[in-house]
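**User:** Once you have settled down, spend some time on the protein underneath, comparing sequence with structure tokens, and judge whether sequence predicts the tokens.
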Amino acid sequence: MYEPLTIAMRWLHITSMATLVGGMIFGRLVMTGATNGISPESREALGDRAAMLYRPLVITAICGSLLSGIYKLLSTTGHSFTYHLLFGIKMLLVLHVYATAILVVQPKNPRRARMMLSVIISGLLIILISAWLSRIF
């Protein structure tokens, strides 16, 4: 049976990544499409406002996933070479997601939609690798 701290950390990890990747999916697939019919100035103002409101969630999600990920890493040992290989690839993708998410929520970002798409792709790959790692463990 899992101890309460382990359950809390797993919940924190899952909700942090759901907030980060889910917000990017909403922003790219819904907000970008919804703003196509308005003027470029209004679209930029709306995008900057949405990014400003999403920024605290991004920072909180990054901190939550870092904290819970470090806990998970330190609380489990004895993994195979394949596990470490996949874990390394996952960490590179995670760094990409963190860095790009921070850039996405900056004001006056003309490449926001493309950057959100790259976060979505990397985030979904991270989730796939995580599911695979849970089977190896």
Remarks:
- The chain has four helices and no strands.
